[in-house]
Each structure stands twice: as C-alpha cells, then as structure tokens.
Amino acid sequence: MALKATIHKAALQIADLDRNYYGDHALTLAQHPSETEERVMVRLLAFALNASEPKAGEALEFGRGISSDDEPALWLKDLTGNIRLWIEVGLPDPKLLRRASGRAGKVRVYAFGARATEMWWRSAAADVARLANLEVFSLPGEGTQALAALVQRNMQLQCTIQEGHVLLTDGTRVAELDMLSLKSTETH
Questions:
Q1: What distance in Å separates the CA atoms of residue 138 and residue 116, rounded to the nearest whole number?
Q2: Per residue in 10-57, pLDDT tens?
Q3: Contact by Cβ (8 Å): 88, 108
Q4: Scanning 109, 126, 148, 170, which has the fewest C-beta atoms within 10 Å of its C-beta?
Q5: Residue 79's CB: how many other CB atoms inside 10 A?
Q6: Bridge-partner residues for 108, per DSSP?
Q7: Which CATH number is correct for 6-183, 3.30.420.270, 3.10.640.10, 3.30.390.10, 3.30.70.1110?
Q8: What mean pLDDT, rounded, does the chain reach?
C-alpha cells in the first residue's frame, strides 16, 4: 500500500518590508512521504519570499514538486498560462534548471542542505552560468533546521522580511535566516 501525503495547514502573515508587501495567506502544503519537514518549511519560506510577485488575477501556487519532474516546488503563471516564475528548493539538477529556464520568465532556487549546498554549487555553477533568468540563493543549515522545528499539522505563523533577513515565528519559537545570493540576474 502506498503511503499518503501528510497535509499541513498554515495561516501565514507576511510583513515584507523590502518589497512593501503585507498579506495574510491560508496555505495547504502536502508533504510527500519521502519529503523532509525541513523541505516542507523551505517551500513555505519560498512562498513568503515571493508572495509579492503575483499581479491582479494571478496566484503563487505550490506545484507537485518532489513527485513530479514537470512541476516546480512553486510557480506563478500569468492569466494566459505562461509561467512567469518557477521556484525550486533544495539542490536541483542543472538539467532541470536549464529546462525550467526555457519554460519560465524567471527561475529562482532556494538551495539548502548545509555543506551539501556548497558542493552542489561548485559542480552546478558553470553549467548554469549562462542562464540569464536564473537566481540562486543559499539558505544556512541552522536556519532551515530551525524552520523544520516550527512544522505542525496546523500552523499560525508570522514572517517578517527586512534587508534580506527573515524572521519566522509561531509565537513561541523563532527561526531566523540570512540568505546568501549565489547567482543573480543582474550579474550578466
């Protein structure tokens, strides 16, 4: 018998001072049986970091992610169905990033995995250097582990983003992160 996904509900309040975005979101995250709690929470963090992207009538949505090669962790489609933003979390294969880069207006990666991120980037950087629409961020291991400690079936979370610093809290516990930009779209 196949294992079923674990469903997490999150009431997420976002105060993104960098982008002047403030919003409340009711999210449902399906955790694939082979997905870690850390990855689930990095997907939630990626949502918070990109919540200001949608224009009127658009919605940032979770893809099937880990269970599908054709869909990212999150994506944003315009009203015609074109993919404006493709978001991956973890350490994706450069081939997947090249394919995503051809399909989407912009691609963002939130890499995590402590020391594995550094090794992944050393091997992937040259392969994806020419992808003008790709941005890659590294998340610190301590921060993503603190995120994982916040996971529950039903969550009430507040996220504050200021000057690239992220603070996510459930009112009792706090996770703090400073992202490191490994590749931006402005360095071409």
A1: 11
A2: 999 999 999 999 999 999 999 998 999 999 999 999 999 999 999 988
A3: yes
A4: 126
A5: 9
A6: 87, 135
A7: 3.10.640.10
A8: 94
